[in-house]
Design brief:
The chain has helices at 2-27, 34-43, 77-87, 93-105, 119-154, 159-173, 176-187, 211-249, 252-259, 264-282, 284-302, 308-318, 321-349, 355-359. By secondary structure, the chain is mainly α. The radius of gyration is 26 Å and the shape is globular.
C-alpha cells in the first residue's frame, strides 16, 4: 500500500503541470487581458471588450506594442511598455509558464495584480468561509442521506419509499441558487419571516460576543447557505445509497446470512453495510469538491459570503491571472490529495481491497 501511495503522490506533479498547461494555453485566446483592463480604467471606459482590436492578443499572450491595444489610443507608448514589463508580458509565453510553474512548485504564487496582496494571504483569508460551507454541507448531506437511503432500500416499494422519492426528485430538480433565493424570500425577511440574516458569515458585533454567542451567531448565519448548497447533493447521495444497498441486499450472501438465522439488523449492518458503502465513499471527494469549489460560487454570491468561489469569479472578471492560476493550482492539488484519501478510506472500510495487487 505504501508503494501505491508513493506512486499516486508522484503522479500529482505531472498531473498538476498538465492542468496548468492547458489552462495557461487557453488564456492566450481569451480577450480582455489585464492590460486592457487597466487601459479601460485609465481612460474611464466602461466596457473593455469593445476596446479590443479584432483578434487582439490576450493578456497572457505576451509582447506586442501599443498597436495591439485599440483602447490605448492617446496613451503614451512608454506607459503600455511599462505595463507589459510589470506584468511580465514582455517575455515569451513559454518562459512565463516555466517561471510560473517553478514558483508554484515552491508554493510561491506571487501577488495579486489588482489587490496588492499575496495570493497565499488572499487564499488563506477567504478559505475559512468556503471550508465552513463545504464541510457543513457535506456532513449534513451524509448524516441525512445515508440513514434515509438505507431505510428506503429496506422498505423499497412502500408508501414511505414513494413519498420520500417524490421529495427527493423535487429537491434534485430545483437548482441550488434558486433554492437559495427561495430560502431568502421565506426566512431572511424577503416577503415572509425574518428569522435568519440576509448576508455575511458573522454579525458586525461578533468580536464583542462571548464564546457561546460567537458559536450561535456563526450557526445562525451559516444555516441558510448550508441548506441551499446541500439540497442537490442530498438528493443524489440518498438515491446512490438506496440503489447501492438494494444491489447488495439481493445478492446470494445476504440470503445465506438470513437462512442462518441472523437478524435483519445484523445482516444489514454486519454484512451489507460494508460492501454497499464502498460506492458511497467513492462519491465523497466529488461531492465535497463540488460543494467547495463549484456550488459555492453562486451560494457565496447570493448570501454575500466572501469565500474562494467568489474570489475566483472576481479574479476571472478582472483577469487577475496570479489569483486565477494560484487558486487553480491549490484546488487541483487538493482534489488530487482528496482522491488519495478516498482510496485509503476504501481500505479502512473493506480491508479486502488491495490497490497494490491491482496496480501490479
Amino acid at each position: 500500500m505504501a508503494a501505491y501511495i508513493l506512486r499516486r503522490l508522484l503522479l500529482i506533479v505531472p498531473t498538476l503541470i498538465g492542468i496548468m498547461l492547458i489552462n495557461f494555453t487557453l488564456t492566450q485566446f481569451v480577450p480582455g487581458g489585464p492590460i486592457e483592463q487597466i487601459v479601460a480604467r485609465v481612460q474611464g471606459e466602461g466596457d473593455v471588450f469593445r476596446n479590443i482590436a479584432g483578434g487582439g492578443d490576450a493578456g497572457m499572450g505576451g509582447g506586442g506594442g501599443m498597436e495591439e491595444y485599440a483602447g490605448a489610443r492617446g496613451l503614451p507608448p512608454e506607459f503600455i511598455e511599462e505595463l507589459e514589463r510589470e506584468f511580465g508580458f514582455d517575455k515569451p509565453p513559454v518562459e512565463r509558464f516555466l517561471s510560473m510553474m517553478w514558483g508554484y512548485l515552491r508554493f510561491d504564487f506571487g501577488e495579486s495584480w489588482f489587490r496588492s496582496i499575496s495570493v497565499v494571504d488572499l487564499v488563506i483569508e477567504k478559505m475559512p468561509v468556503s471550508i465552513s460551507l463545504g464541510l457543513w454541507s457535506t456532513l449534513l448531506a451524509y448524516i441525512i442521506s445515508i440513514p434515509l437511503g438505507i431505510r428506503k432500500a429496506v422498505r423499497d416499494g412502500s408508501g414511505f419509499d414513494t413519498w420520500t422519492s417524490s421529495v427527493i426528485i423535487v429537491g434534485y430538480a430545483i437548482p441550488g441558487f434558486l433554492f437559495a433565493v427561495m430560502l431568502m424570500v421565506l426566512f431572511a425577511g424577503g416577503s415572509y419571516w425574518q428569522i435568519f440574516p440576509l448576508r455575511g458569515l458573522t454579525s458586525d458585533n461578533w468580536e464583542t460576543l462571548s464564546l457561546w454567542g460567537k458559536v450561535t451567531d456563526y450557526l445562525w448565519h451559516i444555516t441558510l447557505p448550508v441548506i441551499a448548497s446541500t439540497i442537490a447533493s442530498f438528493a443524489t447521495l440518498t438515491l446512490l445509497t438506496k440503489n447501492s444497498f438494494l444491489d447488495e441486499i439481493n445478492k446470494q450472501y445476504v440470503m445465506t446470512a438470513r437462512a442462518k438465522g441472523l437478524t435483519q439488523r445484523r445482516v444489514l449492518y454486519g454484512h451489507v453495510f460494508r460492501n454497499a458503502m464502498l460506492i458511497v465513499i467513492a462519491g465523497f471527494p466529488a461531492m465535497f469538491l463540488g460543494v467547495f469549489f463549484g456550488a459555492s460560487i453562486l451560494i457565496e454570491t447570493i448570501f454575500s459570503l466572501d469565500g474562494l468561489g467568489r474570489l475566483g469569479f472576481e479574479a476571472a472578471v478582472q483577469r487577475d491571472y496570479p489569483v486565477i492560476f494560484g487558486t487553480l493550482y491549490v484546488f487541483g492539488l487538493m482534489g488530487l490529495l482528496v482522491g488519495i484519501l478516498s482510496d485509503l478510506t476504501y481500505v479502512l472500510v473493506d480491508p479486502r481491497i488491495d490497490f497494490e495487487k491491482r496496480a501490479g
